[in-house]
Each structure stands twice: as structure tokens, then as C-alpha cells.
Automatic annotation (TrEMBL), chains A, B:
Taxon lineage: Bacteria, Bacillati, Actinomycetota, Actinomycetes, Kitasatosporales
PROSITE patterns per record: IDH_IMDH
Species of provenance: Kitasatospora herbaricolor
Binding site for NAD(+): G278, S279, A280, P281, D282, I283, A284, G285, Q286, G287, K288, A289, D290
One of the record's GO molecular function terms: 3-isopropylmalate dehydrogenase activity
NCBIfam families reported for this sequence: PRK03437.1 (NF002898)
Known function: Catalyzes the oxidation of 3-carboxy-2-hydroxy-4-methylpentanoate (3-isopropylmalate) to 3-carboxy-4-methyl-2-oxopentanoate. The product decarboxylates to 4-methyl-2 oxopentanoate.
Membership in a protein family: Belongs to the isocitrate and isopropylmalate dehydrogenases family. LeuB type 2 subfamily.
This protein's name: 3-isopropylmalate dehydrogenase
Length: 344, 344
């Protein structure tokens, strides 16, 4: 019998609740001879308040010994903004070199979009995950005074851009429409923007069948609401990807359904799967949170580990559940329904 | 008789066509004793190709002698991305210290939104115009090689943030709902984000009647499509403002209706008014472009110069025209219809 060593970081707020359902579905989807060895890590606001730690080096070391990480949600109003985000979530993404931040934008049949006219939406955003304005490079001068100056430095390397761009081309090449859109703001952020554009064009020569285009990030937001069908694969920078994927979640029925994978394709470090939504402290502990985004993240985890058929089964279960959804269900009711479909 | 010294920069593509209609409406709206002394400046792609110049110092000097600038659109595919944007449009915004980039997001009755359920949208974005990632600070190392590194530095000052934040509070305080939302990404861009947040809270103490809240930029995009009614006044950084105002234009019926003002409230330099849309080379010269965004920018220009009643008249003309719009009209037909309403 094989085993899947899974690190689980439920985190804050609704994280605990949605991860529990994700694990149920994972168990139900895996072949009978695969045993999940799940180790839970208590990280997030509680630990920070108790010990002052966000991600101790010893935990980071231990996490390396796993096949994948499932994360619920990080963040709580009691912790100053940025502490957990930078000290835990982004620290993991950077430490494990999660340079492919994969975020599908798919409107499932039966799900209501806030857009009029039931658009046909099925794209995937390949967001760079280890560079750009997210590197944490910057600082302040004359801090706290009326003469304060604050900087944020976006760092972009040919190496870092090329690997994510190539990954995006491969994905586009393997999809029926074979279309790839680069989103940046190369008319204003000319240094980073021209580097992205140059590499996008260079790598494109390896993929003659992929049709490409370019959009400024501001224009891209317009198309997300007026013509989302136009997108197939999108590749973009860390910050633009952050913004666009929340917008993508909104137009595909909300953040309760949006999955993501923080992927290191080399396999040197575990990849991490998490719903795009946050910890939603306002509804935490009430069994109200929709675990679907976590379950779809579990499908991405399965796919990443080579359980392709199992991943498809989970996605199909979600699709069927969404198509027939009626009435309000609790977090575990949704989880149980998905388990039943996956097992059935 | 008084005179209004207006610098006109039609620019590229549809710029020429829409500015012509804007000027017609301006003439019709002003009191009979005010004479428009319009000077046209040939700037943009044509001039760049002819002379290599984007904005000569002598022209910048001359522009200073005007009460305001009306700009059509800048940009053409024949010019490398960034050259005209940085060398002309942004150069003007920075040289004339246009720190208040004002962009209303209003869904006029009769206009179709891509959002389902006919939402009630009436907010204004106060975008910082002279700082942030737009400063042009950055560069490349090992340019053109596989080891290239490119940086973009966002510069943010207490001075620069405070003036735009105070302006936004004043605007919020003068509106019925008195609500102000700060949008940033202070959980990731912690240096700039915390500076924005600190100043937002400090200045807020001068405006006890204004209700405030804070949204990360990614979450803000969600609310723009799921709950745009929640916004009254939004204040944000230069880049986030760029992105959000294109999205705002999209949800309020499209970029053909979105107006903007690049304002220097000190009056030391002329403020500049321009539609948010670009030069749209694909439809240029065909008399197809909707001049409404330019006409609404003219209303903002009138307001800025103290012609409050005249500004209201122009906005009312646009509202009436939009409410009754039927069938396809040419650029000048729309302009003529607005002139008739303003004069009538
Ligand atoms: C919580 C935050 C640091 C994070 C990000 O900005 O990447 C989140 O918004 C996301 O999209 O995963
Ligand atoms: C053309 C470009 C430089 C400009 C900007 O980014 O500010 C435009 O998008 C705008 O919003 O006015």
C-alpha cells in the first residue's frame, strides 16, 4: 500500500471547517491502497498570539518532508495586517519556490454569475508566485513622521519569468483553444513590462500552435466583465494575478468556489493547495462556509500528484453538486454530499 | 468679456474626433460673455514619427499659460509601448503635479451594465496621480540577456498621500452618504500600505462625519461586480486606481462613457481633462467613436474652473441623451444632440 504524506494547515477562521471537508473528499477519492498520512500544523493567529511565531524554522523543515500541503485560510483581524500574510503564507510560497500559482476561472453550469447573459467562462490564470511586488523588498524612511517615504520594489528576473511563461504556454498548448494572453502594464511599468513582453515573445517561438495576445491589466479587467469567454490561459505577474483572480472568482460565482495551487513543478519542495478565499472571521465556527473551493483545491492536489482520474472524479462531483444545488446547506452537508458522489 | 484659455491636445486615433465634439459642447455651455481661446497642440504619434519628440520643453512651457487642458487620447501601435505614455501623458501629469486623478463611476439611467439586476452605481474614485509605481523609478541589469533583472520602484510619501487623502475626505464629506473607502494591499505591500493606512486614519480625525472602511485591492474588484452600490468615495494609489477605474467604467456601461480629471487643486499649473478610453485605432477616422466620455470630461473641466451651473447643464444633457438613446449615431450626431440639449 502506498502512502500520501500530507501536511495540513487549517489556519484561521473558516480554514478549519473547510479543510475538514476537503480531507473527507480526499479520502473518498483516493484509490483504496493509498493511505493519507495527514499531519496537522497549528499555524496562524492562535499560534502567533500564543508564541509570537508565524512559521518557525523547525516547522518549515518538517513541511519539506511531505508530498503536498493543504491550507485552509490565514488571517485574523486581531493580528496586524501583513504579519501572517508575509510571515506565513508568503513565506511558504517563497521558501518552497511556488512559482506557478494556478487559478482556474470556470463558471460551472447551475452557478449564477453576477454578469448578465450567462457567459461561458472557462479559463485558467497562471500567476507568477515568487517575484514582482511580492518580494518584500522596500522600506520606510522617517517612519511615522510627516516626512515619511515608503518604497516597494518589484523584482523581476528573466529566469523567473521564463519558467512561468513556459508553463503557461504548455498549458495553453494542451487545451483545445490553445490561446495565451499576457497581462501586464508595459506602457507604464516599462522595465518589468518589457522584460515580460520580450520573454513572452521568445518562448512563444517554441509553441507555434498557440495563439497569443497582450492586454494591459486595466483593459483586462474590462474584458473579465464584458467578454470573459475570450480568455483561455492567462499568464501574469504576481500582483496583477492576485487582483485578476479575485475578479475571476467574482464573475464565476464567488470566492466560495475558487481553488488554487501554489506549485513547484520541480518537486524539490511540496506544492501547496488552498482556496482563494480568506478566513472570513465573520462566519467562522458557524458551519456556514462553503467548502467547495477547498474541495476543488483538493482536486488540483490530486492532479498534481498524478492522480488524474481521481482529480477528474472530484471535479465531476463538484460540477454535479453545483448543478443540482438548492437550498442552504451547512459546510459538512456539502462535504458529505461530495463524498457520496465521489464514492458512488 | 472674459476668456478661457484652453490648451487642446487631440492626440491619436479617435482623440481628434471626440475632442471636436467636446469643444462644441463646451462652447454651447459657457455663458455668452466667456470666449474660449483654444490653442491646439499637435502631440502624439504623428509628431513623434515626424520629429522624434513626445513633449518638447517649449510646449510644456506654453501649456503652463492656460487655464486648463483638454486631451483626447494618446497611443498608437506604431509607437513602442511606453514611449508616448511615459513621454507625454504621464510627463504632463507629473510636470503639472496632477495629484488628484478624479474618476466618477456612475451608471446613468438607460445605460446597460454588464452586471445583472440593474445595480445603482454612483461613486467616485480619487486616484493618486503623481506617486506609487508610476514614478518611473526602476531599471534593468544585464538587459536583453537570460540573466536580465528588471525593477520597478513604487515611491510613496506622507506628503503625497496626505493631500490626496484629505481631498477624498472633503469630497466624501460633501456627498449625502459621506462614505470613504481606502483601497490598497497593505497585507503584502506593507511599507507603502501601512503609510497609506496611517495617514488615512490620521486625516480621518478631521472628518468625524465621514464613515470609513478599508479593502484590499483584490477584494475591491469583487465588490465592484457583486455590490457596486456599497461605494461612495474611494481613495487609492496610482496603479490600483488605474485598474479599478477601468473596471468601474466597464460596470457602468463602458469606457465610452468614463470621464476623468487630472487635477492640481493649487491652480499653479493647468489641470487636464480626458476621457478614460484610449485612442482606439481600430475605429479611428470613421466617425464611430462615442464622444460622451469627452463631453463628461468637459463637464468636469467646467466644474473645476468654477462654472458649476454650466457643468451641471452638460451632465444633465448627457443624462437625458443616454436615457433616450436609440439606434446607432455617429460621433458628431451625438455631439450635435448634446449641443442642442445644452443650448435648449
Ligand atoms: C492573503 C494574501 C497575502 C494573498 C495574496 O495576496 O496572494 C491572497 O490575496 C491570495 O490571493 O492568495
Ligand atoms: C495610458 C496609460 C498611461 C494611462 C494610465 O495608466 O494612467 C491610462 O490607462 C489611464 O488610466 O489614464
Amino acid at each position: 500500500s502506498r502512502s500520501l504524506r500530507l501536511a495540513v494547515i487549517p489556519g484561521d477562521g473558516i480554514g478549519q471547517e473547510v479543510v475538514a471537508e476537503g480531507l473527507k473528499v480526499l479520502g473518498a477519492a483516493l484509490p483504496a491502497d493509498v493511505k493519507v498520512e495527514a499531519t496537522e500544523y497549528d499555524l496562524g493567529a492562535r499560534r502567533y498570539h500564543r508564541t509570537g511565531e508565524t512559521l518557525p524554522d523547525s516547522v518549515l523543515e518538517e513541511l519539506k518532508g511531505h508530498d503536498a500541503i493543504l491550507l485552509g485560510a490565514i488571517g485574523d483581524p486581531s493580528v496586524p495586517s501583513g504579519v501572517l500574510e508575509r510571515g506565513l503564507l508568503l513565506k511558504l510560497r517563497f521558501a518552497f519556490d511556488h512559482h506557478i500559482n494556478l487559478r482556474p476561472g470556470k463558471l460551472f453550469p447551475g452557478v449564477k454569475s453576477p454578469l448578465a447573459g450567462e457567459p461561458d467562462i472557462d479559463f485558467v490564470v497562471v500567476r507568477e508566485g515568487t517575484e514582482g511586488p511580492y518580494v518584500g523588498n522596500g522600506g520606510t524612511l522617517r517612519t511615522g513622521t510627516e516626512h515619511e517615504v515608503a518604497t516597494e520594489v518589484s523584482l523581476n528576473t528573466a529566469y523567473g519569468i521564463e519558467r512561468v511563461v513556459r508553463d503557461a504556454y504548455r498549458r495553453a498548448d494542451s487545451r483545445p483553444r490553445k490561446k495565451l494572453t499576457l497581462v501586464h502594464k508595459n506602457n507604464v511599468l516599462v522595465h518589468a513590462g518589457h522584460l515580460w513582453t520580450r520573454i513572452f515573445q521568445q518562448v512563444g517561438q517554441e509553441f507555434p500552435e498557440v495563439t497569443t495576445d497582450y492586454l494591459h491589466v486595466d483593459a483586462a479587467t474590462i474584458f473579465f466583465v464584458t467578454q470573459p469567454e475570450r480568455f483561455d490561459v492567462i499568464v501574469t505577474d504576481n500582483l496583477f494575478g492576485d487582483i485578476l483572480t479575485d475578479l475571476a472568482a467574482a464573475v464565476t460565482g464567488g470566492i466560495g468556489l475558487a481553488a488554487s495551487g501554489n506549485i513547484n513543478p520541480s518537486g524539490d519542495f511540496p506544492s501547496m493547495f488552498e482556496p482563494v478565499h480568506g478566513s472570513a472571521p465573520d462566519i467562522a465556527g458557524q458551519g456556514k462556509a462553503d467548502p467547495t473551493a477547498t474541495v476543488l483545491s483538493v482536486a488540483m492536489l490530486l492532479e498534481h500528484l498524478g492522480f488524474t482520474a481521481e482529480a477528474a472524479k472530484v471535479e465531476a462531483a463538484v460540477a454535479a453538486d453545483l448543478a443540482e444545488r438548492a437550498g442552504v446547506r451547512s459546510t459538512s452537508q456539502v462535504g458529505d454530499a461530495l463524498v457520496a458522489r465521489v464514492s458512488g
